[in-house]
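Handout, section B. The chain below has 116 residues.
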Amino acid sequence: MNTKYYKKYIEKLININPVEIIIKRKVNTPDGYKGTTSTTKKINATVTLYDKKGSRQIATDEGISYTGVIVTKLLALNDTDIIEGDTFKVDNKTYKVSFIKSYMGICKQAELEVIA
């Protein structure tokens, strides 16, 4: 499969509504005394954020019901250094990457959780 077309398509999607973010990642390094030192790594990235409507299943004593939800997602190029657990701020909201998936080496799509 020729992925050049799809990579250009993803680049165009990101460039329509680009969001510059600074990803913060906690990195533990050995301190030489059987412990670790925690530092924060900062990574600059250009991504796009979008909302997707979905439904969630809720199980109660009365039975199962469904509720509509809006999930905020992130779309990035495949070479963007982003992993689960990373955090970043956009418009006074702090997001945490809760799930990330790479699609055929073309792009990465992540579900986000608002934590503050």
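Note. The chain has a mean pLDDT of 89. Compare this with the example in section A.
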